[in-house]
Amino acid sequence: MTDEAGPWLVVGLGNPGREYAGNRHNVGFMVADLLAQRVGAKFGRHRRAVAEVAEGRLGFGGPRLVLVKPLTYMNLSGGPVAALSQFYKVVPGQVVAVHDELDIGYGQLRVKCGGGEGGHNGLRSMTKSLGTKEYVRVRFGIGRPPGRQDPADYVLSDFGAVERKELEFLVDRAADVVESVITRGVEPTQNLYHGG
């Protein structure tokens, strides 16, 4: 992809505030933070949207990235995303949402374009605000809650001790998946990463 295609808007979904930082629901923020480190960019408050934004390039002369962490709560993420996609003139096919996913096992990564929201409030808000489902999702599996735990409580709890041992590696892999979507496309990335 060259610059003529315009920048990519990579949205890490999560909740703002230190108390949410280690939550399963905030894995999108973790991936966005790592991508910012990789491109040597720092997050700062955007003047046109309730979000932190970091801008950089993937590699020398590579595609332009606009990394986004909405500062609204999860269920209002769509407003800042829509404002930024208009500001940077990003088409929906070049919007990538990175989010936690209850319906796949811990650490599994799946990529898709379009489709349902699976009850995810951040995705539901994005779809409503963008007016389309046709954006890319990088789904980070967190698995189902144990026993009878309420899924809402589960996503707002921190990763467990055993999960945390692998978390850094998995966030790194999720960042690789995002980069692959941007440089290779959705289908080649699915072929590459959906095996495991």
From TrEMBL:
Q: What class of enzyme is it?
A: hydrolase
Catalytic residues identified in the record: H25 (proton acceptor)
A UniProt-annotated Pfam family: Pept_tRNA_hydro
EC number annotated for this UniProt entry: 3.1.1.29
For whether the record's keyword set contains Transcription regulation, the answer is: no
Kindly state which keywords UniProt assigns to this record, in alphabetical order: Cytoplasm, Hydrolase, RNA-binding, tRNA-binding
| Gene Ontology cellular-component terms listed | cytoplasm
Residues of the site described as Stabilizes the basic form of H active site to accept a proton: D100
Q: Provide the assembly information.
A: Monomer.
Say what the protein does: Hydrolyzes ribosome-free peptidyl-tRNAs (with 1 or more amino acids incorporated), which drop off the ribosome during protein synthesis, or as a result of ribosome stalling. Catalyzes the release of premature peptidyl moieties from peptidyl-tRNA molecules trapped in stalled 50S ribosomal subunits, and thus maintains levels of free tRNAs and 50S ribosomes.
Extract the PANTHER family matched here.
PEPTIDYL-TRNA HYDROLASE
Protein name (database record): Peptidyl-tRNA hydrolase
Its taxonomic placement starts with:
Bacteria, Bacillati, Actinomycetota, Actinomycetes, Micromonosporales
The gene designation is: pth
